Amino acid sequence: MKIMSKTIQNSSLKNMPIRVGITGGIGSGKSTACKLFERLGIPVYYADERAKALMVNDMALVKKIKRMFGEEAYLPDGSLNRKHIAGLVFQHAELLEELNKIVHPAVLKDGEKWHQKQKGVPYTLKESAILFEISSQGFYDKIVMVYAPKPIRLERAMLRDGLTKEAVEARMSQQMDDEEKRLLADFVLVNDGMEDLEKQVLALHEQLLGMAALK
């Protein structure tokens, strides 16, 4: 079953679209699932991409990052000095938590502004790898988890990012256990290469359309 590109047009959608969050561990295939929803006409907010943009363009956030990491946090061209920040975070693990405390609220605020601008759609999708880790589940009406077994996720991340097994496992260790996420999520999409992900997305899309219609 193939998802055909189409745009949802429904002038009767007078209410704001419902908020749907989508999460999953590194290598689970969140982006793949999001692209399928986009082909169905659902707008998707990519939190990680927006976080990177905000860390450069949101002047209030830039000032906070400079206070935390020094003027060296930014290169002469204004771009983020990731090497400098990563070095400090590696030496002082508590800095990562502090960085998250200032970045994620900015991303949540930006995401809400984006959501408010979406018109004529039944629901919006916000992708976030650490949705549960930052306790942001209260911002969503429904939450979707993309699941894949750890060995598959490990292999995907190594191939995609060119990382070593140890590097990927280190990132995995910073994320919540998949079984915990499955218990917290409203829906689970299995992306293990065996189950048909497109078919699952289509079925979930129909469910979400029904929920939006009853809102």
Name the shape in a single word: globular
CATH architecture of the largest domain: 3-Layer(aba) Sandwich
Q: In CATH's first tier, which class of the largest domain applies?
A: Alpha Beta
Count of folded domains: 2
Measured by DSSP, the beta-strand proportion falls in 5-15%
What's the Cα radius of gyration?
Answer: 18 Å
**In total, how many beta strands?**
5
* CATH fold assignment of the largest domain: Rossmann fold
**Arrangement of strands in the largest sheet:** 2-3-1-4-5
Low-confidence stretches: 1-13
Percentage of residues in helical conformation: 40-55%
Main sheet: strands, sense, barrel: 5 strands, parallel
The succession of helices and strands, N to C, reads EHEHHHHEEHHHEH
What's the pLDDT, averaged over the residues?
90
Overall structural class, as computed from helix and strand content, comes to alpha/beta
Distance between the termini: 29 Å
CATH superfamily of the largest domain: P-loop containing nucleotide triphosphate hydrolases
Count of DSSP helices? 9
Please explain how this structure is put together:
This protein has 9 helices and 5 strands. The protein has 2 domains: 1-43 and 121-215, Rossmann fold (3-Layer(aba) Sandwich); 48-117, no CATH class. The chain is globular. The two termini are 29 Å apart. α2 crosses α3 and α3 (59-69) packs antiparallel against α5 (94-117). It has helices spanning 30-39, 47-57, 59-69, 82-91, 94-117, 150-161, 165-173, 178-184, 197-214, and strands at 18-23, 44-46, 123-127, 142-147, 187-190. It has a 5-stranded parallel sheet with strand order 2-3-1-4-5, with helices on both faces. By secondary structure, the chain is α/β, with parallel strands linked by helices.
